[in-house]
Amino acid sequence: MATLFDPPAPIIAPTTQGPGFPVRRLFCIGQNYAAHAREMGATPDGSAPFFFTKWADTVALSGTTIAYPPETSDYHFEAELVVAIGKGGRSIAPADAADHIYGYAAGLDMTRRDLQAQAKGKGRPWDVAKNVEQAAPLGVIHPASETGPMDAGHIGLTCNGDVRQDGDLSDMITSIPDIIAYISRFYRLEPGDLIYTGTPSGVGPVAVGDHLIVTIDGLTPCEVRIGAPEAA
Ligand code: MN
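^ thats the input. predicted complex w/ manganese (II) ion below
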């Protein structure tokens, strides 16, 4: 059928294998490292994980410049391991989770921290804090057949060359198999879905001109620059 306007092109993330990974949806786990939960004022208590979502078109590919967004004066970086789902499923058992993973990438869960704090204080949704244009930078996806399980290894972030986050994947509170099992209780996971698995401690604000690099053992780094706010 003719359309009134062009439908949006899908975001295609590069992979080390050649064919691109068409992005479908983004799920993001909150407070998945104890030291980060504490720096957010929470007390990790072993309760169920929680997650929020971002639109697929919030993905910004590594190597690009992302605009400082409007309506915030405290835009934060959060370095995260991203799981790329290659095979769909509902109510996936943790023991079967590996079958549903295509691969892994380094990424960022950029956050309007000031709006998130306001939302928390009022018991309101986090959408305007988290679901922000270009707020999900993503590096090259490596297939799991190349990386093996990503259950340990260094994850870090530098801002303008200074180390700001320095953690280990083994410190995740909810493991990747348990994350996949949990999300798939609520939604049928589909190929193209991305799961941002939470950030270690050390999150902080960015300024226009900053250069962020996320490094994770075994993966291609994800790097972005913070650009000037978009013109109205
Ligand atoms: Mn996060």
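DSSP finds five helices and 18 strands in the chain.
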